[in-house]
Design a protein that fits this description.
Helices cover about 40% and strands about 15% of the residues. By secondary structure, it is an alpha+beta fold.
C-alpha cells in the first residue's frame, strides 16, 4: 500500500513513497532527477527524524553504506551513492519493486494459506547463495567476511518478477539486555540468535540460526518460538525450546527435523558449520519435492497476490 499521496521534491530527489520507518531509520523510494538517462527508482536511507543528531546512528549508517559498497552480487541491491541534504546524511541503493517476505506471509495468512514446501525451500536456497557470497568478502572492517547482522523476513524482498533479494547488509547486531528488551520489535525476536541475549558474539552461526527460524515458519506457518509475552519468547530461544516442525506440519518428512536441530540449537558448536552446509540440507529436501521452481513461477504468485497494489503502483508512476 502506497503511504504517500503525492511525490515530494527534496534537493535533487523526488520522493515517491515511504518504504520503511523502523527506528532509527527511514527508507524512501526516490527518483534521482539528475540521472540522465533514467535507470530506475532508488531506495534512500537516512535517519529517523528523532535521531538525526545521534553520532552512533550516523556511524552505523556510514558503516552500512561502506559494507554495501563492497558487495557485488545480483541478489544484493547495489549502493548507488551517498551525501548530505540539509545537514542529514543519507545513502541510496537500487530499489526492488516487490514485497518483503514478511508482507507475503501476512497476505497469505489472510486467506488461511501458506507457502508450499517447494516455494519455501526455493526462497531459502536463494538467500543461502547470497550469504555464501557475502561470507567470502573480507576487508579491514570484516576480516572474516561480511555478515548481514539482521536476517529476518522484513529484509528479504521478492520482486514482482520473481527474483529474491536480501537487503539491510551492514546492520550492527542488536545485542540486548533485560532493561533494553522493551525496545525490541516483538515480531522480529524469533529470528534473533540466543547469543544476542546472553552476551555472546554474533557470527556465521548466528545467521544460520536466523535462516533456520525463517525456514521453520515458512513450512509450518508459525514462528518456532511463539509465545504471548516477550520474556517467554526470549526464554524459549535461549533454551532452544521449539516444537519439532514435523509435529506442527505432519505432512513433512521426519528427516527434515535435522535441519532445525542443527540450526535452532542454542549451542553454537552444534549448529551447521557454514551456510553451505545448511544449504545442503535444503537442497536434499528440495530434491525430495521433485519440483523445479523458477523465478517465473514465483513472479506469477506475487502478481496474483498483489495484483491491486501492483496496478496502483503503475497508475502512480504514470502520474508522476
Amino acid at each position: 500500500m502506497r503511504t504517500l499521496d503525492r511525490a515530494v521534491m527534496v534537493d535533487k530527489y523526488l520522493i515517491t513513497d515511504l518504504l520503511s520507518r523502523t527506528p532509527p531509520f527511514h527508507v524512501y523510494q526516490v527518483i534521482d532527477t539528475t540521472e540522465k538517462p533514467f535507470t530506475g527508482f532508488k531506495s534512500l536511507k537516512t535517519f529517523h527524524p528523532n535521531n538525526a543528531n545521534q553520532k552512533p546512528v550516523l556511524a552505523e549508517l556510514k558503516r552500512e553504506y561502506g559494507l554495501l559498497s563492497s558487495l557485488d552480487f545480483p541478489s544484493i541491491p547495489a549502493a548507488t551513492g551517498a551525501g548530505v541534504i540539509s545537514g542529514q546524511y543519507f545513502f541510496t541503493y537500487d530499489f526492488v519493486w516487490g514485497k518483503s517476505l514478511l508482507y507475503l506471509l501476512r497476505e497469505l495468512k489472510k486467506y488461511n494459506k501458506m507457502l508450499s514446501e517447494a516455494y519455501a525451500s526455493y526462497i531459502l536456497k536463494e538467500i543461502c547463495a547470497t550469504l555464501r557470497y557475502s561470507h567470502t568478502v573480507s576487508d579491514s572492517r570484516s576480516p572474516e567476511g561480511v555478515l548481514h547482522g539482521n536476517i529476518n523476513p522484513h529484509n528479504i524482498i521478492i520482486s514482482y518478477t520473481g527474483e529474491i533479494y536480501l537487503v539491510g547488509f551492514g546492520h550492527i547486531p542488536r545485542h540486548t539486555t533485560p532493561d533494553k528488551q522493551r525496545d525490541l520489535d516483538f515480531r522480529m525476536i524469533s529470528y534473533m540468535a540466543p547469543e544476542l541475549f546472553t552476551g555472546g558474539n554474533y557470527s556465521v552461526a548466528s545467521e544460520i540460526f536466523s535462516l533456520g527460524a525463517i525456514f521453520y515458519e515458512l513450512i509450518t506457518g508459525l514462528p518456532p518460538f511463539m509465545e504471548k509475552s516477550l520474556p517467554k519468547v526470549i526464554n524459549r530461544i535461549v533454551k532452544g525450546s521449539f516444537v519439532p516442525a514435523t509435529k506442527v506440519n505432519t505432512l513433512l518428512p521426519e528427516s527434515l527435523d535435522v535441519v532445525f536441530t542443527r540450526s535452532l540449537t542454542p549451542f553454537i558448536g552444534d549448529r551447521f558449520d557454514s551456510v553451505h552446509e545448511f544449504e545442503a540440507g535444503l537442497l536434499h529436501f528440495l530434491d525430495r519435492t521433485q519440483t523445479e521452481l523458477t523465478a517465473g513461477q514465483l513472479a506469477k504468485l506475487m502478481q496474483t497476490l498483489f495484483k491491486d497494489e501492483l496496478m496502483d503502483d503503475l497508475r502512480f508512476f504514470q502520474s508522476i
